Amino acid sequence: MNQLANPVLQQFLLESRDALEGIAGSLLALERDPLAAPLMDELFRVVHTLKGNCGLFEFPDMFRVIHAAEDLMTAVRDGRLVFSRGMADALLEAMDFVASQLDAIELDGDPGSGHGAASVRLAADLRALSEDAPAGAGAAQADADARTNAPAADDARAARIHAALALAPAALSAQWHADAAAGRTMSWVEYAPEAECFFKGEDPLYQAMQLPGVQWQRVTPAEAWPALSELDPYRCNLLFQAVTDAPRADIEEHFRYVPEQVWITQLRLDLPAALQTDALAAQASTPDEALVADALTIVQAQGDALWTGADTPWSAGRLRAAVAAIRACMTAIGRDAALAQLDACADDALARANAAPVLAWIERHAHGAPQADTAPAPASPMAAQEASEEAVPAATSAELEPKFGRRADDGAGRVLKVEQAKVDRLMNLIGEIAVARNGLPYLAARAENHHGVRELAREIKAQHAVINRIVEEMQDAIMQVRMTSVSFVFQRFPRLVRDVARRLGKEVELVLEGEATEADKNVIEALADPLVHIVRNALDHGLEAPEARVAAGKPARGRLLIGARQEADRVVIEVSDDGRGIDPATIRRKAYAKGLIDEQTLERLSDQESVNLVFLPGFSTAEQVSDLSGRGVGMDAVRSAVDRLGGEVVLSSTPGQGTLLRLSMPLSMAVTNVMIVESGGVQYGVPMDMVMETVRIPASEVHTIKQHRTAVLRGRIVPLRSLNELLALDRPQVHNDQDEMATLVLRVHGQHLGLVIDDFRGVVEVILKPMAGILGSLAAYAGSALLGDGSVLMVINPKELLQ
Questions:
Q1: Pairing relation of β-strands 648-654 and 716-722?
Q2: What is the spatial distance between Cα 214 and Cα 240, in angstroms, rounded to a whole number?
Q3: DSSP one-letter string for 389-456
Q4: Taking each helix axis from N to C terminus, what angle separates 7-32 and 493-504, rounded to the nearest 10 degrees?
Q5: Which of 86, 83, 90, 71 is nearest to 138 (CA)?
Q6: SS3 string of 296-352?
Q7: Of 25, 47, 119, 40, whose CA–CA distance to 82 is shortest?
C-alpha cells in the first residue's frame, strides 16, 4: 500500500518541514548567542516533538539521528555542556539528513534502505559531542557536580531495586537466585513515561504490559501524589518496574521509540543478599568478619569461573561480569584501593583474550588482608560497570502545549492548512468565470447592433457590471489565499550564508528586511533558485576576505542585505553588499577575452552597459572553476528565470563600495492584463506591465540610422521594430488615414523600444495559459488566453521577440 495515501503521514511530512525550518533558525541564533536559554528551550521542544511524531512510523534511521540530537541538546539545556559552533555543524548536518529522509518519503512513501550507516555515523558524532568533557571554569564545576551526584543516583537506583525486590514472593526470589547460579541472566527495567505522554497518543500502561519475558513487575508513583484538589488527571505520574529474562536487545527494541524514558541494568543475583543493599556504603569502613568472608569467597568463585581450560571457550562478556561482581565485593569490605590495578588487568586480559591477568590479581587480593601489588599495571583502565549497565536519565516533562481545555476563541486567529492543488483548482474555476464574464459585452453588442434590441443590451451591460464586481472580489480573495510571505525563501539564507562564508574564510553579517512582504506563492517559489545564485555570487565575488577589507579601511565583517517590499502591483527584492563592487573596465576586458563582444563594442560601451555584461551566457570573472562559481551560468540563469516570471533585473555597482541587484516581479502570475493589438489581420496580446505608452508616429518623423528605423519621443531616441517582420509575416504594416504608425513603446531589459503594429484594440484581463506540445518551444509567445467571444488570443513575449 502506498503510504502517501495515509493522511497521518501527510500531516507528519507537513509538520516536519515546518519543524526543520524552525530548528535551523534556532541553531543559527544559538550560534550567535550560546547562552540564550529560551532559544535552547524552544529548540529542544521542537526537536522533542519531531522525535515523538517520527515515532508513529517505522523510520528507524531518522529516529536514531533525531534521538541523538535530542540527547545533545538535553546536555546543553541542563548546563552540562556549552553550545558551540561544532555542535551547530553536527546538528545542522543531522537535520539535513532528516530533510533528505523526508524528501525520499514524499517521493516514494518510504525513506528507503541504505541509510543505516549514515544514520549510525551521525548519531555517533552527536553522542560523542554529548559525552565530551566540558571545558572552562563553569564547565569544570559542572563536571565536578556530575561526578559528585553520580554515586547518589546509583545509590538511589540500588535502593529502589532492593526495596522493590523485597516485595517479590520468596519462592520467586529463590528461583531467581537458582537461575543466576545456573548462569541465567535477568534484567531490571524501569520505565518512567513523560508527564505529558497522553497528549502524544502514548499508552504507557499498554507499553509496560507488552514487555517481553516479564517475571515480576509493579507500578508505583514517580512522585508523591498531590492533593486531590490539585491532581491533574492528564499528567502521567507513574514509574513501571519489572524483572525480565528477555534479551537486552529485545527490551531495547520494545522501547525503541521512548529509549530516553527507560533504564535497563543486569540484575545481580549471584551475590549474597547482604551485598545487594545500599547499606554497604555505611559498612565499608568497618565490615564484620562474616561479610568479609562472604565477599572473598565470591571473589574466589568468580576466579574459578574464569579459569580457561582446553575445553572452555573464552568469553569477554563473562570477564566483564566477573570484574563487576569483584568490584562490588571489594568495595563492600573496604578493599577498593587496588581496583585501579584490577581494571588495568582486565584491559590486559581483554587484549590477550585470556583471563590470566585477572586470575593473578585475584590470587594476590582474595586471601585475607590485602597485599601490595607489585605487578606492573597496563596503561588503560577499564570501566567494567559501564559495559554491563546503561543508565539513561529519566525523562522530564515534555514542554508540549496542552491541547485539552482550550477555548475555541483563544488566540487572535486560526489557520487552516489547505493543499495547494485545491487552491489552484479553485483559481482555475475563477478563471473560467472571468472568461464567461468577458463574453457578456459581446452579447450586449450583438443584441444592439445585429438584433436592434437596445433595451436588452442595456440590461446585459448592467448585469455585466454586477457580475464583474463579484468576479473581481472573488479573484482578489483567491489571490490572498495564494499569497505567501517572502520569508518562505529568506529563511534558507542564514544557513546558506553561514556555510558558504565559513568555506571561504569570510566574516559576513546577514541582514533580512521586509520578510512579511507577500506575493503569489508560485512567484515566491520560482525566486528561490535565482536568489541563491545571487547570494552565492555576492559571497564569492562581492565581499572581500577580512584582511582585504581591513586593508581597504572597511570593517572585517562584511554586510549582506536582502530586502523585500511591495510597489504598486509588483514585489521588489533587493540584494546588496558592501564589498569590492564591479569594475566596468575589468568586465569589458573579460567579455572581450571570452569573445562575447567585438572590438567596436568594447570601445563604445558605457560603464552601466559594461556592468550588464555579467548577464551574458558564459560570462564569469572567476579565475578558477569551483562548486561555487566560475562556470558562467549564474547571472544568466538569474535573468532567464526572472524573465519567465515576467520580472525585471537591474544591476548597479560602485567599485570599492558594493553592488546592488534589484528584482522587480509581478505580485501574481494568475491573472494578466494584456493589450489587444492587430497586426497582419490577426489579433495578438502584449502584457501591459511592459507597455510604457501607446503613440501614433507620423511616417515623416521616422528616421533611419544604420539601417534601423528610429523616432524621437520625449527627447529620447527609440528604435522601431515591425511586428509583422518579427513574426515573418509577408505583409507591410498598415498606416491610418493620416499616414501614422500605431506604436507600442515597450520597456525591455531597461531599454525603450517601439513595436509598430496595425492598430490598438483595447485592454482585457485574461488567464494566461502556457503553450503545450510543439507550440511550447516557441519562445516568442508567453502563452495563450481564451477571450469572451470564444476566440484564442496569442500573447507575445516581447523580451524574446525583441532581443
A1: unpaired
A2: 12
A3: EE--PPPPPP-PPP-TT--TT-SS-------HHHHHHHHHHHHHHHHHHHHHHHHHHHHHHTS--HHH
A4: 50
A5: 83
A6: HHHHHHHHHHHCCCCCCCCCHHHHHHHHHHHHHHHHHCCCCCCHHHHHHHHHHHHHH
A7: 40
Nearest to 335 by CA among 360, 362, 357: 362
Please say whether the dihedral angle defined by the alpha carbons of residues 16, 19, 25 and 28, taken in this order, is positive or negative. negative
Distance separating alpha carbons of residues 60 and 116, to the nearest angstrom: 9
Give yes or no for residue 373 having a pLDDT over 80: no
The residues with which 762 forms a beta bridge, in sequence order, are 676
What is the enclosing helix (H) or strand (E) of 717? strand 716-722
Q: Distance between CA 402 and CA 405 in Å, rounded?
A: 8
Round to whole Å and give the CA distance between 743 and 760.
Answer: 9
- Length of the chain equals 803
Spatial separation of the C-alpha atoms in residues 85 and 1, rounded to whole Å = 43
Q: Write out the three cell numbers for 109.
A: 512513501
- Give the sign of the dihedral formed by CA 129, CA 130, CA 136, CA 140: negative
Distance CA 648, CA 444 (A): 39
Q: Give 21: exposed, middle or buried? Use CB within 10 Å, 0-12, 13-18, 19+.
A: middle
pTM value > 0.70: no
d(CA 3, CA 174): 51
Residue 626 has pLDDT above 70, yes or no: no
Give pairs for 346-351: CB < 8 Å, separation 24+.
346/319, 346/320, 346/382, 346/384, 347/378, 347/379, 347/380, 347/381, 347/382, 348/378, 349/319, 350/316, 350/319, 350/382, 351/378
CB-CB neighbours of 785 under 10 Å? 23
Strand pairing of 708-713 and 508-513? Answer: unpaired
Where residue 71 falls among pLDDT bands split at 50, 70, 90? confident
Amino acid in position 53: N
Alpha-carbon span 761 to 443, nearest angstrom = 18
Helix segments in 565-700, DSSP class H: 584-593, 599-604, 607-611, 634-644
- Within 10 angstroms of residue 208's Cβ, the number of other Cβ atoms is 20
Q: Each residue of 475-530: pLDDT tens digit?
A: 788 878 888 888 888 888 888 888 888 888 899 999 999 988 988 888 888 888 88
